[in-house]
User: What shape does this take?
Amino acid sequence: MKFTIKVGVAIVLLLGGVVILFSNGKKQDLQAEVKDIQTDSITVDTNQNSQETLVFQITTEEVNKIIIDNRGERIELLPTSPYSEEEVRTNLSGWYVHQPYKNVYSVKYNKMSDILYGLANIKRGEILTGNEKSLEEYGLVNANFKISIASKDKEETILIGVPATSESRYAKLETDDRVFTIHSSALEPYSYQAFDIVEKFVKIVAIDVLKQLTIQFTDQEVAITVEHQENLDLGFTIDINGDEIEANKFRQLYKSIAGLSVKEEIGDAKYGPPAATMIYTILDSDKGENEVKVEFVPYNNKSFAVFIDHKADFIIEKKEFFEMIKLITNQN
Assistant: This one.
């Protein structure tokens, strides 16, 4: 299966959202984008004499870590990952979930935008000046809802307590016992569980950095090889087991591969012999090449546990995986 793509053209596929399968190597700067929006918002607030009500003093462009403790789950978000720039080129948000999972995963663009943009909406409402109640009565002793942000040289944490009204909750900074109220709607971006904000795709690699994808299952193997031309004007060719395929058919095929998605998080998967394997060989500016192996180990009658580096956090439906395999093998 073979066709040629011009490098100057971007392939954008809708997979429950916008996913860039072929990129120009440029990534959107989400923090800079949010900073522009926040600057406009803060200017308006200043005119209304309310800028001093902002809870966090760390600005959006300074944030390099966000930790959300909510309902017994800790979510740690960082704008860095252990992966090469080429491997994560399709990450639109530029942020990653480091906890609570064993592996590191991309954060959805819209969810991350809400989290960063939402920092400017976390403001003090009513400031309680007396000793009306103890901190325990406000729900601020051993609070189970915390939002922490950090910069290079500073960290701030807000504790969220019990409801003050139907539309607000009590809160305080961790280092200050003064209690204030905060509007409940401002907390919505921080009220999700990790599985709600993480990208669900098993693995997406931009075609322009993919050298080869080998899919092994039962007694079969499919090898997708991308031959990159030195002269970028010539584009590159893609061969699949030596057979030819029309460009439109390949786009649908790769859409099926890239769109393979997990359905549920798990914590009890045990590694064993995989029923199938997907091996990505990715061009790497530092190493030359980098190999990433995704293994599908039987979890139950309906699902595979998805293992990367012998660690699994999610399961995928066997039905979806084999539908992808059927699409590949029925190309001839």
